Automatic annotation (TrEMBL):
GO function term, MF aspect, one: ATP hydrolysis activity
Gene3D superfamilies: P-loop containing nucleotide triphosphate hydrolases
Family membership: Belongs to the ABC transporter superfamily.
Keyword check for ATP-binding: yes
CDD domains: ABC_Iron-Siderophores_B12_Hemin (cd03214)
The protein's name: Sugar ABC transporter substrate-binding protein
Domain of life: Bacteria
Domain ABC transporter stretches: 3-235
Keyword entries, A-Z: ATP-binding, Nucleotide-binding, Transport
Entry keyword Transport: yes
Entries under InterPro entries matching the protein: AAA+_ATPase, ABC_transporter-like_ATP-bd, P-loop_NTPase
Source organism per UniProt: Ancylobacter defluvii
PROSITE patterns noted in UniProt: ABC_TRANSPORTER_2 (PS50893)
């Protein structure tokens, strides 16, 4: 067992934004959340890691209501990489990653060898070991995303939640971040907006539409032309792609040769 939601609801401004969602993360696998802008992905992720409380329903970790877990205990299990995590520009790479150790350290305790080891191991896993002392403001977008993932890994979580971790990255860096996430072998819940990347990297996919879960299952079963038309309002052809994964081809209303 791992992270699950049971008929979870949350609203704001008199509107239901997460509307009765029941899903569970397959242990050690990647659950992708897809859906149009404003469908409730980020809101659901925030409920999953208790940055917000549910209005009704329950989020469970190993069958226990997360609302009843001490914050430190939750933070030792579950790490969140936010979409637009803000970071103090004065910090260096290792300063940022060290923040991930907070839930493991007693108040006023000194920095231990185990803490240092966790930080080094996390930087190693994201391929930035030699960037230890580089100032944050000098990093590229892809490197910043890796450092945020390293901070989450220094937390030593078993569940990792990521909100559009490939945003603003070029295609090479998108593939490399998702490859990295896959190799971690953790239970991951990741909001993605690229359907082909979701198809390539996720073991299961949940589709959100106006706050509701309208489909869930394997990418092969979920990513159908009907579903994509209904939820995203676009026409697609589905082809066989890399490793038997589905490749989604968008049907666009432009005749070949129409270019000026
Ligand atoms: N705190 C809030 N107050 C009012 N509306 C909100 C709040 N948070 C999110 N929303 C609204 O909820 C909807 C879903 O937002 P979000 O969860 O960010 O969607 P997604 O991540 O799928 O783009 C949007 O219409 C957004 O404006
Ligand atoms: Mg979002």
């Amino acid at each position: 067992m791992t992270l699950a939601t049971h008929d979870v609801r949350w609203g704001a401004g008199g509107r239901m934004i997460v509307d009765g969602i029941t899903l569970s993360a397959p242990p050690g696998r990647i659950l992708g959340l897809i859906g149009p802008n404003g469908s409730g992905k980020s809101s659901l992720l925030r409920l999953l890691c208790r940055l917000r409380g549910v209005a009704s329903g329950v989020v469970t970790l190993d069958g226990r209501d997360i609302a009843a877990l001490p914050r430190r205990e939750l933070a030792r299990r579950l790490a969140f990489v936010e979409q637009q995590a803000t970071t103090d520009v004065q910090l260096t790479v290792c300063d940022v990653v060290r923040l991930g150790r907070t839930p493991h350290r007693a108040a006023f305790a000194s920095w231990t060898e185990a803490d240092e080891h966790a930080v080094e191991a996390a930087l190693e896993r994201v391929g930035l070991a030699e960037r230890h002392d580089q100032p944050w403001h000098t990093l590229s977008g892809g490197e910043r995303q890796r450092v945020h993932i390293a901070r989450a890994l220094a937390q030593d979580p078993r569940e990792l939640i990521l909100d559009e971790p490939t945003n603003h990255l070029d295609i090479q860096h998108q593939l490399s971040i998702l490859g990295l996430i896959r190799r971690l072998g953790l239970t991951c819940i990741v909001a993605l907006h690229d359907l082909n990347l979701a198809s390539l990297f996720c073991d299961r996919i949940g589709v959100l539409h106006a706050g509701r879960l309208v489909a869930s299952g394997s990418p092969e079963n979920v990513l159908t032309p009907e579903l994509i038309r209904q939820v995203f309002g676009v026409e697609v052809h589905i082809r066989d792609g890399v490793g038997g994964r589905r490749h989604i081809e968008y049907v666009v209303d432009v005749e070949p040769g129409e270019r000026p």
